[in-house]
Structure formats: structure tokens, C-alpha cells
Amino acid sequence: MLSRSDRCPPQPRERGAAKGEAGRQQERDRPGGAGRCRLPGKAGQGAIFGGGDDRATVDHGAQPVLQRGQMFAGGCPEAERAGDVGAGDGGHRIGGRHRRGKPGEGPHDPLLAVQLGVEAGGDRRDRPVHGAAQGFLVGRSILSNAAVHANAKAILKMDIKEFFPTVTVRRVKGVFRRAGYRDGISTLLALICTEAPREIVEVEGKTYYVSLGPRCLPQGAPTSPSLTNALCMRLDRRLEGLAKKLGWRYTRYADDLTFSLPAEHKGKPRLGTMIGCVTRIVAAEGFEVKAEKTRVHRTGGRQSVTGLVVNGDGPPRVSRTLRRQLRSAVHKLKTGKPLKEGESLARLSGYAAFVYMTNPDLGKKLLADINGATGAG
Cβ(170)–Cβ(217) under 8 Å? Predict the structure, then answer.
């Protein structure tokens, strides 16, 4: 982990005349010097990570960057792909349409290993997260998110449109700059964590990957959730302030914004004011509300937050419909009847674990029944 003491304080730049041609020549001759994207590791090897102590150093300040990563064999593939058009071999690219699979899938090795190093090597104290953020954080989950909104008169759910693609490389660089990294390191880390959507173009038998838009956070990368949580600090602060002023409660799970009016609230709900103000705040923070996904749930119907029912003053729970379907499937297993199309043992076990999260006694019984029916230990 990087500590504050590991980072170098700002240093005055050398004047060009003082450095001289000899100094510039030494800089060019140094491994990973001018014109290269490789950083000087141990034994003169150009590496993003690595060296004998599993760390790279940057410039002359010996600033640790990341740990537990991989060494690039040559140059910096991310920087090579920073241009609008580039040739390639169909390798490890993320978020682009040219990849084999759905757009937005997470990266593959070795880029995945590098991004895991970025995620593991940063100092989270320099990337604070607001208390309203419930997603992708230790000790928080869909259960903790739903628990905030139990026993509500009304629940307002709103969605941010194109959440990850809206976070461009410049905004990601800003997160690293605020965390204390120098400009060049922040740029490199932002390039590693972002990718542009691309289209395959074949020209005279050679494959090119043409950028279709700006570099942004890819959905599925291990670095994207924590970066968006840090980036949304001010958004969460403003939305929570608005909610408290109007008597509502607020949480955010990734791109899902949830507001609830407590049952004990007295006075007008001011729902229209809430929706309008949230829309304007989200727009002011560089995002956009997906209007067609805005929903209001009142006490007369089922109120659910991140997949869990929160009606009444009881704890969040799995819907009664899902519990019935799961019991029916388990009964079929016990009696030797075939499962419905689309059902599988892995799927049933996943649902049972989902129930266990909110109701350990029932979940344990369902898991035991599934394992017993299949002969698993």
C-alpha cells in the first residue's frame, strides 16, 4: 500500500539552460528515457511494475507507484493505443466493440493484472468515499443499501445514464492528481484504467482499431468502481444535503440513486421538487439522469431497493415470489422431477445464497436441501 510519506513533495522544475545538452543526453540514454513509456525499474529494466523488490520507481524522487503487478515486455501498450487509430493483433483491449464478446466486458491478461495492481497499490485514504456510497466497498452491499430505506412512505429510484462511459480519461486523471500523484504518473494511471470504444477496420489485409469516442472507464474493469466512488464524492455530498433538507434519505449503489421518505415524516413530500433538483445536480456534476428509469414506489405496492423488499419496519428481505419459486425447484429436485428451462443447480444454489444473506436460517435450509437432493457434501 502507498502511504502519504511515500509520495514526493512538489519540487521546482529545472531551467532548460541549467540542465544543458549533457543532461538531456543522459536522460535519453537512461533506460525508459525520453520517447519511451517504460519506467525505470531495478537493474535498468523498463517496467511499470517489477524489479527485484516488486516495485517500480519514477523519475529521481524514488516515488513508489504500484505493487503486485506485471512487467511489460516492451513499451507501454496503453499509451500505444492512446491515439485515434492504431494497428494491433486483437489483443487485450477493454470496452471496445472489436473485442470478442460483449462491449464493456472486463479486461483480459495482462492488462487485467496491471489494473489489479493499480487497485491494490493505491492509498484509499487519498481517495475518500462518501458515506452514502454503498457499492463495491468493504462492509457495504445491496443489503446495507436497502436497509437505509426500510419503512418508507415513498421510495424514489433514479438511474444515471451511461455511468461508466461518462467518466472520461481527464476525469480519471483528476482523481489520481487529487490523490497526490504527479502529472505524468496520473496520466499513465488514467490511460491504464480507461479505454475508448473501437471499431475493427481491415485495410489491405492489415487490421486497425479505430476509436469511436473518447477514452472512458470500461464497465467490468476492477478499477472502475473505486474510481467512480471517489469521483462521485461531491455528487453524493450534494444529493445527501438536498435529501436532508427535504426530509428524505439518500444512498447510491453504483449508478442507482435511491431516495426514501421516512414513515414518520410530517408535511408534504415535495416529490416534484426532489426529482427536479436531483436532475439538475446530476447534470451539474457531469452526468445525466435516465428519465425513463425513474420510479416511485408507495406503501400501497411492493417497495424494493437493489432487489430486496423494504416494506414495513422489518429488515430487507427477498421477495415472496422468489422464495416460492426456489422452494418449488427444491421440491422437484427431491422428487426427481426435471427443472424448468433455464434453471440449473448452480443457479438454485446462487438464489439460496441470496436468501441466506437476508435470512440465514431459511437460506441454510435451502442450501442443505439442494446439496442433499444432489448428493453433494
Answer: no
Set of cell numbers at residue 322: 422468489
Q: How far is CA 196 from CA 86, 286, 296, in A?
A: 12, 18, 35
∠ Cα 94 95 99 (to 5°): 65
The DSSP 8-state label assigned to residue 101 in this structure reads S
* Cis preceding-peptide flag for 110 (omega within 30 of 0): yes
Q: Residue 204 corresponds to which cell in the numbers above?
A: 489491405
How far is it, in rounded angstroms, from Cα 180 to Cα 10?
A: 10
Helix 233-246 to helix 224-231 angle (10° resolution) is 50
Q: What is the pTM of this model?
A: 0.69
Q: Can you tell me which residue has the cell 519540487?
A: 11
Q: Cell numbers at residue 242, please?
A: 438536498
Paired strand residues for 296: 156
Cα 309 to its chain centre, rounded Å, is 25
On the CB side of 270, how many CA atoms lie within 13 Å of its CA? Answer: 15
3-state secondary structure of 140: coil
Task: Give the tens place of pLDDT for each residue, 211-266.
Answer: 888 999 998 899 999 999 999 999 999 999 999 999 999 999 999 999 999 999 99
Alpha helices (H) in 194-232, listed in sequence order: 224-231
